[in-house]
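Progress report, Aim 2. The chain analyzed during this reporting quarter is listed below.
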Amino acid sequence: MNIVTNTGPLIALAKINQLALLSKLFASVSIPPAVHRELLAKSGPEADRLDDALHQIINVTAVPDFPAEVLVATDSLGAGEKQAVALAYIEKTILVIDERLGRTAARQLGLTVTGSTGILITAKQRGLIPHVIPLLHDIRRYGYWLSDELIATAAKLTGETE
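Predicted structure tokens for the chain:
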């Protein structure tokens, strides 16, 4: 299975040193050029992890002209989200995105959507990690915003207590 991902989930997974999960869960991981630019601008401890992933597991894929329906659905999004939604739509694949507006636009276009939390839940289900909730707390501790509601839902889905 192939995926297209936006910047946010890559940063979240880099913060907890779990980018390798992507290559264990998916046949290929693609990002559009705008997401690539956003990742190159990233600083902090996760920057080296992102650089390694860009050389080892992440493919930068050009986005052809956007179909009209994608232009309409993504009108209010930033460049990275807009291109990620468009690339997933054109490639007819799963979109990994955490931002609410991007998720809404993707769903309007009929895309299957998951996020960084969904990646961790899938990794636990496949026996790649033992727990999800401590990782979500670590993501938050390192400055990535996750709602209490999302963490509670993840705890319920994984059978973990908070």
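The first strand starts at residue 2 and ends at 5. The two ends are 31 Å apart (CA to CA). These observations will guide the mutagenesis work planned for the next reporting period.
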